[in-house]
Amino acid sequence: MSFFPSPWRARGWAVLAASLAAAAMLGGAGCYNPSIATGSFKCNTGYKAGSGDCPDGFHCSDGFCIKGTPTLVEPQPDVAPEAQPDVAAETKPDVTPDLLSEPAPCNLPVTGCAPASSGKCDPVCQTGCTGCHEKCASNTAGTLTCNVPLDTRARGLGENCDIASKDQAAQTDNCAPGLVCLDDACGSRCYHYCKSDADCPMSTCTHDAGGGIKTCDVQAVTCNPIKNMMPTDCPLAAQGCYLSSTVTDRTVCDCPFQAGG
Fold first, then answer.
1. Backbone angles phi and psi of 242, in degrees to 5
2. Do 217 and 204 meet the contact criterion of CB atoms below 8 Å apart?
3. d(CA 29, CA 11)
4. 26, 35 in Cβ contact below 8 A?
């Protein structure tokens, strides 16, 4: 049984059909976009673009639909902190432990010196020894030797010195190459090997080193030979200042009772 007469029934169906058609057209054009205020419509906090949690033209932010398109922020790559300079490395010397101490230089022959053709080696020219660090010298018996000097500071002419393996073939000392350590009244001093007076500036080639090998006598220096007037200006306390017996009008610093050789 119907509550409307037939004409009314037909017109009602027509209106319903038109409404359904309009709804279908809106559905085909896009999502429904009601007129809502921004921030008044809740959404899923796990919202991702395109999930449909907010109407068209809105995006989910902090649980609410906000009008407009979300601003996408590109993720920034992790950047390592700027390397800091290694202060400790900058202060370290640019050397390896093996290079902290330089090896001793080789003993080189004396330039322009004509070596003797006889004997084991030549102590004046420093030739004849095969080892890089060996020096040609003589032991207390007057025998020529080739040995490495003692591993201490090389002593210069007239300086006190030390002798090792005395009287033996391995005898050596800490005098520089070309010098030999000889005992005298002042202890032990370095003397210079020589062949003639030309090898002895301010001195003479008259000091016997044994076995016919000669060294320069005490070198003439400026000192005070007058007794009881100090200082004498000699380098060693045991020395006295004397008039040289080999160099005219010169003074020497020598041990007592050995003035001038």
1. -135, 160
2. yes
3. 27
4. no
Q: What angle do CA 49, 50, 55 make, to 5 degrees?
A: 100
Position 53, amino acid: D
Kind of pairing between the strands at 240-243 and 251-254: antiparallel
3-state secondary structure of 192: strand
> How far, in Å, CA of 241 to CA of 244, rounded?
9
Predicted TM-score (pTM) above 0.85: no
How confident is the prediction along the chain (261 residues), in pLDDT tens digits per residue? 444 445 544 454 454 455 545 444 544 444 455 566 776 667 765 555 555 567 777 777 777 787 877 665 555 666 565 655 554 545 544 544 444 456 678 999 999 999 988 889 999 999 999 999 999 999 999 999 999 999 999 999 989 999 999 999 999 999 999 999 999 888 899 999 999 999 998 899 999 999 999 999 988 888 888 866 667 778 777 788 888 877 778 898 888 765 444
Other CB atoms within a 10 A radius of the CB of residue 111 amount to 6
